[in-house]
Write a structure and sequence with these properties.
The termini are far apart. The protein folds into two domains: 8-212, 3-Layer(aba) Sandwich (Rossmann fold), CATH 3.40.50; 220-293, rRNA adenine dimethylase, C-terminal domain (Helicase, Ruva Protein, domain 3), CATH 1.10.8. The protein has a seven-stranded mixed beta sheet with strand order 4-3-2-5-6-9-7. It has a two-stranded antiparallel sheet with strand order 1-8. α9 (223-233) crosses α10. It has 296 residues and is of the alpha/beta class. It contains twelve helices and nine strands.
């Protein structure tokens, strides 16, 4: 579903705020401000926020989405890299008790550090909501999903092509889709036209809902090794899996044949056809082979 053009009043309001603070969109940081209030409300609704929820918002910009979030959530931790935007946000929300503005690079801020004031008996549950700059989408997903303190839920705006890759099914899988789907359940909430942003980007976007799995098939401590293994499988994605593994794994052809045989995988299949369950099964067998090669 494609959104309608945003209301001119919202764009005028945004331009007025930027002029007041002598600011403009920073192209280097990939800033495109979402100005469609219908989409802003849809993002907040998709997060299913309640008064007990703590939200980390990545890249709040001028705070239009922050306003929607703070009206529903118990607390919003808005993390912004652009110092001028931080000044604007702190002025805008100085009298709002449940919004904390943090200046910094989200990729350098562990979730546990951001949430340290919101922990209850050592257990911290939180959600992530973000209109992500396209160039940091994958790093931000890794930052939250691949750590020990994963969010219950993420609602993120991403470039349409990237969103399709994240939610891909076997036949179109990639390292990105496996890396997300091994730990979470992604789904598309809606498509968003480039006209819903100021300035408009060159491509349309998708709003994704990414729900963390309660018991992911890959434990947190094994995620880096698992993804290295999957990355080896995608070393030559257009080649047959046996050939891709041969170039990407430090084991012999005979061991690769053994790996695929034990995993009940046809060696002529291509990596994009495998399911997450098949990757997980192969990973377990590969670990067993590695232990035989290098016993403790």
């Amino acid at each position: 579903m494609t959104s309608n053009s945003p209301g001119q009043s919202t764009i005028s309001q945004l331009k007025g705020v930027l002029r007041q603070h002598h600011m403009r969109a920073n192209k280097r940081m990939g800033q495109h401000f979402l100005v469609d209030r219908g989409i802003l409300k849809a993002i907040a609704a998709a997060a299913k926020l309640g008064s007990d929820d703590v939200v980390i918002e990545v890249g709040p910009g001028t705070g239009l989405l922050t306003t929607e979030l703070q009206s529903c959530a118990g607390a919003v931790i808005a993390v912004e890299l652009d110092r001028q935007m931080v000044t604007l946000l702190r002025q805008s929300f100085k009298n709002v008790d449940n919004v904390q503005v943090v200046e910094g690079d989200i990729l350098r801020l562990p979730p546990a550090e951001l949430l340290r004031h919101h922990s209850t008996r050592g257990a911290v549950q939180y959600k992530v909501v973000a209109n992500l700059p396209y160039y940091i989408t994958s790093p931000v997903l890794r930052h939250f999903l691949h750590g020990h303190l994963r969010p219950d839920l993420m609602v993120v705006m991403v470039q349409e092509e990237v969103g399709r890759a994240i939610t891909a099914q076997p036949g179109d899988m990639s390292l990105l889709s496996v890396s997300v789907q091994a730990l979470a359940r992604p789904s598309v909430i809606r498509r968003v036209s480039a006209r819903s942003f100021h300035p408009p980007p060159k491509v349309d976007s998708l709003v994704l809902r990414i729900e963390s799995l309660e018991s992911p098939p890959v434990p947190s401590e094994q995620v880096p090794g698992f993804l290295d293994f999957v990355g080896a499988g995608f070393h030559s994605p257009r080649k047959q899996l046996r050939n891709s593994f041969h170039h990407g794994l430090p084991i012999s052809r005979q061991q690769i044949t053994e790996l695929l045989s034990q995993g009940h995988i046809d060696p002529t299949r291509r990596p994009e056809t495998l399911t997450v369950d098949e990757w997980v099964r192969l990973w377990g067998i590969y670990q067993a082979i590695q232990r035989k090669v290098s016993p403790c």
